[in-house]
């Protein structure tokens, strides 16, 4: 896909948009992608959708931790199970 006269092809930019969002590309590539996104409305629109999706996923799926009481109960149950399990006999 290409929508204009850009140094980088649109399909290439869109295939790397998650790397750009996650800050996982080097500075040169980051600048190249940012320039393309500034100049290309269709890619910028797609980038906005991806950015919104990433933020939504982080909000809904990230950062939740099990309560400390639950973790402790699970640890206790695991220890009880291990203690109650028959020990292998040496051969």
What does this structure look like?
The chain has 91 residues and is mainly α. It has one domain: Arc Repressor Mutant, subunit A (Orthogonal Bundle), CATH 1.10.10. The chain contains five helices and no strands. It has helices at residues 10-15, 17-21, 27-39, 41-61, 68-84. Helix 3 packs across helix 4. The radius of gyration is 24 Å and the shape is elongated. The termini are far apart.
Might you state the CATH topology name?
Arc Repressor Mutant, subunit A
Question: What level of helicity do the residues show?
Answer: 55-70%
User: What is the top-level CATH class?
Assistant: Mainly Alpha
Number of helices: 5
Radius of gyration equals: 24 Å
> Would you report the number of β strands?
0
Pfam families: zf-HC2 (PF13490)
Protein name: Mycothiol system anti-sigma-R factor
Domain Putative zinc-finger: 10-43
Region (Disordered): 71-91
Short summary of the structure?
The protein is an all-alpha fold and 91 residues long. The protein is built from 5 helices and no strands.
